[in-house]
Amino acid sequence: MCVSRCSTEVTGKGQASGRNRASTSSSIGLPPRRGQCHMPRPVWHFPQPLLSVTAPENRNTLICRYFQNGHKNCLICRDFNSNSNQREQTMKRKPLAPLVLFSTFCTLGVAAEEAEEMAPLVVEGSRIADVSGTQVKSADLAEALFKNMANVSLVRRSGIANDIILRGQKKDNINILVDGAKIYGACPNRMDPPTSHILTNNVEAVEVTEGPYDVENFGTLSGAVKITTREPEAGMHGNFSINVGSWNYWKAAATLSGGSDRIKALVSLSHEESDQYEDGDGNDFVEQMKANNVSPMTRYKAEYEDLKAYEKETFMGKVIFDITENQQLKLSYTANRSDDVLYPSSKMDALYDDSDIWTADYIIRDLGRWSSALELSFYNSKVEHPMSTYYRNSSGPNSANEKISYLESRIQGFRVKNTMEIDAASEVRYGIDTSRRNWDGTYEGFGTNAGITGVKSIDDVDTDNLGVFVEYERDFDNFNLRLGGRYDDTSI
């Protein structure tokens, strides 16, 4: 199957494009799990704030709003206290500066700690805002996007791992990229959507493109969500946060980065968990199932009625080597380990949900007249997602009749992109990319369900793609023009 497309976009500066808008939202040694059998350039422009950081009313707080105005970026911060005194500071784009932020948030109405003063915000390249500094209760990036974008809706199946709908479009029609790497969930029912595999405190920026106007990446039909993770800085920097909330929710996250001007590294760890959430009448999962006359066989066993809704641990490591003044190598690894994720609206729960994302980027700048930047990128992502009836009455006494669906998704990709500056106001970007996606699922049964062992829930399928793209961009006094095209050759 061959697919080609092109896009034209004209966007007035200081105005929101009807087609393209940008928005932002905000362990090493991970233990094995029980039951485991196997293991740029921003899109413009918003006149309203792209990022707001606030704390409860009547408390000392720092309110920060990030704006983009033409080619200038600024962060306006106002420090309000109980006497309504106010101090305003505007920070424009500037060279890399340290950002050390310690914050404690409480979503139970308990008095929050006074917000720490933020160092000057770094805005460079495709970064739009410091998402990790936002007051987001959950590690779930989908929830953060939902809270910060009017045209993003949320599909909630559990207390975590929520999915998004962008302008009425959903599933794989929305392209999700983490540092340029594609990632797909393994569950056909979207219980592990791509946005669930990245933690908000690791996110530096999120760029949302509406419509099929991202020609640089394969599969962008209804929109693209490009996630940029945090990068290490020279020197020594740290960040620690604790969030607590309703239903015994808590999340602890820590980030440490440092190094020299030549070599820099970053390590980030987090743990998050929550009890079952309750409805407005105070009913937990079990009580809601009874109230809605859910089949007794689908309900949770008595010994598992008080299980936590989920537990989640993450790790991210990133190293940047500045080989020479114009050559840079970036290596990163992200791991997500979620255990015992309950899905009360389904007949099965996730024993675990594991993902691993590897990326490598090599950048050479100023090669000459025909290349201001040459980028070579490789990525590999893998998701394991076994769904089971272990905690349900349908599995029988001692779960002797348990049924498991082992699901796995993998994708590897490589891209070469060249950027050529025509003049100070325009440039051309072109390149080639290729990827292979594998999706596989197999049942395993015990007791009365032993007969399904080995039956395929999803056929072992490869999707291969080869694509080429070109895009021209020019800045005028009052608007920005982008022209692009892409051709893909796909086989399944």
Automatic annotation (TrEMBL):
The keyword Membrane applies. GO terms for biological process: siderophore transmembrane transport. One of its GO terms (cellular component) is cell outer membrane. It comes from the Bacteria. InterPro entries: Beta-barrel_TonB_sf, Plug_dom, Plug_dom_sf, TonB-dep_rcpt-like. Residues 1-35 are annotated as: Disordered. SUPFAM superfamilies: Porins. It is a multi-pass membrane protein. GO terms for molecular function: siderophore uptake transmembrane transporter activity. Residues 137-215 form the TonB-dependent receptor plug domain. It is found in: Cell outer membrane. It holds the Pfam family Plug. Residues 1-10, 17-28 have a biased composition (Polar residues). Keywords: Cell outer membrane, Membrane, Receptor, Transmembrane, Transmembrane beta strand, Transport. Its main location: membrane. This is TonB-dependent receptor. It comes from Thiolapillus brandeum.
